[in-house]
Amino acid sequence: MKILALFISVAISVTSCSNGQNKKNNTQTASPETYAKTITASELKEMLYTYASGDFEGRKTGEPGQKKAIEFIKKHYVENGIASPIAEGDYFQEIPSSYFPNGIADSENVLAYIKGSEKPEEIIIISAHLDHVGVAKNGDVYNGADDDGSGTVAIIEMAEAFKAAEKAGDGPKRSILFLHVTGEELGLYGSRYYADVDPIFPLENTVANLNIDMIGRIDDKHQGGKNYLYLIGSDRLSTELHEVAEAVNNKYFNLEFDYTFNEDNDPNRFYYRSDHYNFAKHNIPVIFYFNGTHADYHKTTDTPDKINYEFLETRARLIFHTAWELANREERVKLD
């Protein structure tokens, strides 16, 4: 999986990426570590205990709980002064019921962004799905704390970190789109709507998609081990993107990257089963970050008390660092 020659060159690029970053002044160069530290386990936990609570009724697409979810996400962007790319105060990309199957009501993606300081037309998308599967027949709520509450709150924290950098004069060179998609559990509908029907930013200007779907738990394979993530799709379209991900990890975190589900013959076919795929099919380089399935996957027992918040904090910081590198390097990662 690793291509050593490219890895060495990309590692050098990561080490020296400050050459492409904005400077606070003539002597000090921005460091992503300063802003990554604003992503904390305590804030992730506070948000997730609300977002994955019974009040949100399992966040089923088109249902009242999903409407609470989008208002929750919007509230955080408004409070932190992070703008919408659609229109001032309008964070919702509306998707009509006719787009969904089986009588699903109208639904919404939630979009926020930070405009790039030097190459604003080039976009890094960080995505996660905001929906889950609703309420069981017996009234129990499918809380979806890991799936995908973990990705949702991680993106909000990353957005706050990028905003803090912008306020300090260290904003990203390229624009960052924080994309919360609906309808994933129905079949990737929200991301498909954005990519196929109404891309707010032209797809040809989209540099990469970092997609987060379940990053708060530990699967059976990794119990008792060090922090890890499954990476899926990182080398499918851009070897350079894969090597950037590896170099960032080795420089800052040293998590175990597991590529089991990236194999072409993966029987789970996870590469095709989350929202990154709707960008990959348009030849946009992608990484799908995933902690693997567990006993509570798609059960009412996927609750926030079972999240490993220290692991979640580190994983979110890792993705933030990767987005930072992609946003600030001199050249966009190349397709090969």
UniProtKB/TrEMBL annotation:
InterPro entries noted in UniProt: EF_Hand_1_Ca_BS, M28_fam, Peptidase_M28
**Locate the Peptidase M28 domain: which residues?**
109-321
Extract the SUPFAM superfamilies matched here: Zn-dependent exopeptidases
Q: Which residues cross the membrane?
A: none
Write the protein's name. Answer: M28 family peptidase
